[in-house]
Structures are given as structure tokens and as C-alpha cells.
Amino acid sequence: MPLDRFSTQSAAYAQYRITYPAALYDWLLPQVPGRERAWDCATGNGQVAAALALHFAHIEATDLSANQLKQASALPNVHYQTSPAEHSPFADASFDLITVGQAVHWFDEPAWHREARRVLRPGGVLAEWGYQLCRLETPELNRVLDEFHDVTSAPYWDANRRHIADEYAHIAFPFAGVQHARFAVEKHWTAEDMLNYLGTWSATANYARQHAGADMVALVAEELTRLWGPGARLVSFPVFARAGVAR
């Protein structure tokens, strides 16, 4: 069954999740033979769809969550609709490119890749990417984040989330000419920004469901805010990506 872990925090997700770097698109787009149609699957708030809209004549952008789609910007060449990844409404051989950012681990992998191959044109490209837990320049703050991620929130992560830790190494990718790349996204965040980002985690939403709406982030807020201090700090997110060609 498809998993929706982000509808309840869709507004915060749109504000505090990272945007992907221009370098990712500079790496990806030269691999794509056509510029007619692209599908951004699990588009969330539409940030990738908006980036692709600068390069393709038409974008289809889908997500399980209608609440997430409400956060997306209206653009003349982007069409948003709710749909599961594994059973899309699209015709065979419809797309030059399919993208999935930070979502493949929620999919039924065999069904998803069958669907991607069905709707890609011959020579079309599927690109999947995600990002790891952020890093700061202060070891003590990294320790607090690691403990919150690896210990406090550990019982509340869905099992699927383990695929982020191993960068999709155990999710099959049955496409040709596979290319891999790494990038970094840097943000200058205050302690409040970081706490709001932690509030977008699926584990945070799961905790609230299991504890009558309680906020798991409150368990780390005091210590993180004290160590962070006033002002902004540099936060770096490691991004991993893979792309392959449909035959």
C-alpha cells in the first residue's frame, strides 16, 4: 500500500525542506535526449517540477498527498494531480524524463520501475535522488542531531527509511548506462529553522500519531537551542543521485 507520511506537515515541508542545487540539473539534463515531456513523481510542493518547467514544454507532477500539492506554485506548463507512483494515469512511452526526489524508498520498487519503464520513451531517463542527515561545523551539535535521529526518533522511522542511509544501494535500478553523482546543499539556519525542519520528518509525524499529538521535537529543542546560540549557522545536506536509460 502506498505510504503518505507528509500530508499533516505539508506547509512546514514546503518551507523547511531543502531545494536541490543547480548542479544536480546541470548533471542530469545533458543525459536526457528530448525536452518535450517530463514527469516529476512524488512532487510534494512542486519544487522539482518548477525547475524542470524551465527546460521542458510540459511537466506532469504527481503526489499521493493533495495537501502537499496545495503548496505547489501554479505554472502554465505544469499539471498537478494526485496519483500513486506505481499506477499512473499516463500513456505508454509518454516521457523523456522521470524524476523522483527523496521518495523512492516509499514506493513498491518492482511495481514502480515497471511503471517507469512503461511510460518512458525509448532512450528516456529515470533519475532518483535523496539526501542524508545534515551536518554542521560544530561536533557537539552533530552529536545532538545524531542522537535525536539515531536514538530518540529511531522507533518511529518506517522501515523504508533505511534505504536513505545506504543511498538506495539495496533498491534495484534496472536501467541502462547508470550514472551516479553527489552534491551538497548548504543552508544558513537559525535554531528555530532547524527545529522546524525536524518537525517535517516522517518519524515526527509517526510519534505524534502514537502519542496523542505530542511533539517529539520538544524533546531536543532546549538542548539544541542552547548549543546553537543566536544567529544562523551553516548546515550542509549531502545529496546522492542516480540516473539510467530506458531500453
Automatic annotation (TrEMBL):
InterPro entries: Diverse_substrate_MTase, Methyltransf_11, SAM-dependent_MTases_sf. One of its GO terms (biological process) is methylation. Keywords: Methyltransferase, Transferase. Pfam families: Methyltransf_11. It comes from Hymenobacter aranciens. Transmembrane segments: none annotated. Gene3D superfamilies: Vaccinia Virus protein VP39. It comes from the Bacteria. This is Class I SAM-dependent methyltransferase. Belongs to the methyltransferase superfamily. GO terms for molecular function: methyltransferase activity.
